[in-house]
Specification:
The protein is mainly beta. The chain is built from no helices and eleven strands. The chain has strands spanning 3-6, 9-12, 17-23, 33-38, 45-50, 57-59, 67-72, 77-82, 91-98, 110-113, 117-122.
Length: 123
């Protein structure tokens, strides 16, 4: 496994969680990284992305202003700080590494995918 997400759990609406994703090797420092999520019965969707040098970030409209993506290339890690969580944020969250350096919303440009971490937000 080259990417491993962690930090999911059960939280009440309005609460916060911080997801982490670490790579097993120093192979993603020049790649864009992103978080996607998939809720039961729904398609996978883009949540947030960050370019290789953190110069560019992008967010889905549904999480803008509540979630923050960051990365630490020295630790080969990417994070997703999730605040003011809502029940509709309930999903399995996946981190992914792009074949390019940017923060693309297109899942087809992400070649490396980690195992998901489950986030459940209760109302």
């Amino acid at each position: 496994v080259q990417l491993q997400a962690s930090g999911g759990g059960l939280v009440q609406a309005g609460g916060s969680l911080r997801l982490s994703c670490a790579s097993s090797r120093r192979m993603f420092r020049n790649n864009g990284l992103a978080w996607f999520r998939q809720a039961p019965g729904k398609e996978r969707e883009f949540v947030a992305g960050i370019s290789w040098n953190a110069g560019t970030t992008g967010y889905a409209d549904s999480v803008k202003g509540r979630f923050t993506i960051s990365r630490d290339n020295a630790k080969d890690a990417v994070y997703l700080q999730m605040n003011r969580l809502k029940p509709e944020d309930t999903a399995d969250y996946y981190c992914a590494a792009n074949i390019y350096t940017g923060a693309s919303r297109d899942s087809s440009t992400y070649k490396y995918w980690g195992r998901g971490t489950q986030v459940t937000v209760s109302s």
